[in-house]
Amino acid sequence: LTGADLTKADLTGANLTGANLFKTNLRNADLSRANLTGANLTGAKLSKTNLRNADLNGAELFVANLRNADLNGADLTEVKLDGAILCHTTMSTGEKVYSNCKNADLGGANLTGANLAGANLLKASLHNTNLSNVDLNGANLTGANLTGADLTGADLTKADLTGANLTGANLFKTNLRNADLSRANLTGANL
User: Fold this and answer.
1) Which of 183, 134, 141 is nearest to 158 (CA)?
2) Closest among 101, 105, 114, 91 to 140, alpha carbons compared
3) Is this structure's pTM higher than 0.70?
4) How many Cβ atoms sit within 10 Å of the Cβ of residue 10?
5) CA–CA separation, 75 and 57 (whole Å)
6) Phi/psi class of residue 23: alpha, beta or left (left: φ > 0; alpha: ψ in -120 to 50)?
């Protein structure tokens, strides 16, 4: 299915375990409850795609476009999202995400209450992202862009925020215990 055009396809509950969907166009497709375990979705176009309750365990989504995708209830265990675009995506509250999101663009996403403990968000763009009540305990946010992000009530215990840009970020009731804020820019941040 490499490079196929599956725009608006109904793949509800499909078994795509290990499928090669490299650069496949899945815009506006319905992949709810689909099994995409170990699938290669590198460079795939998944904007406005329904991925509710999909199993993406171990999937590769390098530089994939997930803008406005619905990831509520999706299993994102060991997902690789390096360079992926996740602007305006939604995720379930409390959902555990063991992912590698280096250089990912999550600008404007609603991640309220998501569990991103230990996530690798090195140089990720999280500008204007809703991260309220998110668990980022031990997360790597080195060089991340958190300009205007809402981190109200977030847990950043032991998070690495070295060189992060927190200009205008809302850090009200944010737990920063043992967080590394070396060289972080906190200009205009609400502490």
Assistant:
1) 141
2) 101
3) yes
4) 12
5) 6
6) left
pLDDT at 86 (0 to 100): 79
DSSP 1: -
Please give the single-letter amino acid code of residue 12: T
**In this model, does residue 95 exceed pLDDT 60?**
no
Structure tokens at 91: 């995720």
113-131 pLDDT tens trace:
888 888 889 999 999 999 9
C-alpha–C-alpha distance, residues 71 and 77, integer Å: 13
Q: How would you class 50 by CB atoms within 10 Å of its CB: exposed for 0-12, middle for 13-18, buried for 19 or more? A: buried
Contact 36, 18 (CB under 8 A): no
Q: What angle do CA 77, 50, 137 make, to 5 degrees?
A: 35
3-state secondary structure the chain: CCCCECCCCECCCCECCCCECCCCECCCCECCCCECCCCECCCCECCCCECCCCECCCCECCCCECCCCEECCCECCCCECCCCECCCCEECCCCECCCECCCCECCCCECCCCECCCCECCCCECCCCECCCCECCCCECCCCECCCCECCCCECCCCECCCCECCCCECCCCECCCCECCCCECCCCEC
Q: Could you give phi then psi for residue 40, rounded to 5 degrees?
A: -100, 105
Q: Is the pLDDT of residue 140 over 70?
A: yes
